[in-house]
Design a protein that fits this description.
This protein is α+β, with helices and mostly antiparallel strands and 208 residues long. Helices cover 14% and strands 33% of the residues. The chain has two domains: 164 residues, Pnp Oxidase, Chain A (Roll); 31 residues, no CATH class. The protein binds flavin mononucleotide.
Length: 208
């Protein structure tokens, strides 16, 4: 027996991104966004949706560049503070005592204390309704060496990113490893991961 909730915003899980932008005067802003995620492999792209009322919206339109600082569980209070005030009236870096750094790749700031940073140039904007969806092409990803696994990739269990539950507006943490994608079924071709990640060999039979 299932209960319907009607036409509501619901998808599990939602990420928590801290979007870094500069305004027209070069003042840095940092804002949490949960309506977003990876949206293309080639070119590598991420999307995020913003209301026109936000300072971040104006900054994105003006500067056409942004960073995503991935916050860890230990930074949840700062994340929430950044989402409860606007860069129009508050210097969020001063307010949260987070340190701003300037991206060397795009004209946007990022948070020095965050362990993973995604640097993007804006390539599309789609007005959807209350929110406009911005698509950024990823020009670089950088991660603190302390969160790398022995095989050189980023360890999600060391980053400990936040997860957002959109219906209850609650923050959660990442749980245990459940399994490795494209390796759970013995009939799965090992090269199928290419179709999502863009790495390894292509698999022409993959439907996605
Ligand atoms: C966890 C969290 C997620 C949020 N996600 C979004 C979002 O996806 N889109 C949006 O427009 N606002 C979102 N907000 C609200 C903005 O962060 C908030 O309006 C902020 O004050 C905007 O700051 P700015 O005016 O400096 O850009 C979120 C807030 C929180 C706390």
């Amino acid at each position: 027996m299932k209960q319907s909730f009607g036409a509501v915003t619901f998808a599990y899980p939602a990420p928590v991104f801290l979007i870094g932008t500069y305004d027209n005067d070069g003042k840095a802003d940092i804002t949490p966004v949960c309506w977003g995620g990876i949206c293309c492999t080639k070119p590598p792209c991420v999307s995020l949706s913003l209301r026109t009322a936000t300072q971040t919206f104006a900054n994105l339109v003006a500067r056409k560049a942004f960073t995503i600082s991935i916050p860890s569980e230990s930074q949840v209070k700062q994340v929430d503070a950044c989402g409860s005030t606007s860069g129009r009236t508050t210097d969020k870096f001063a307010h949260t005592q987070l340190t701003q750094a300037r991206s060397q790749v795009v004209y946007a700031p990022y948070i020095k204390e965050c362990l993973v940073i995604v640097e993007c140039k804006l390539i599309h904007a789609f007005e959807l309704g209350l929110h406009t969806q911005f698509v950024g092409e990823v020009l670089n990803v950088k991660a603190d060496k302390r969160v790398l696994r022995e095989d050189g990739v980023v360890d999600i269990l060391k980053v400990r990113p936040l997860i957002f539950a959109p219906d209850t507006c609650e923050y959660y943490g990442v749980g245990r490893l459940i399994g490795k994608a494209f390796a759970m079924d013995r009939n799965t071709r090992r090269d199928a991961a290419h179709n999502i990640t863009g790495r390894g060999e292509p698999n022409p039979t993959f439907p996605g």
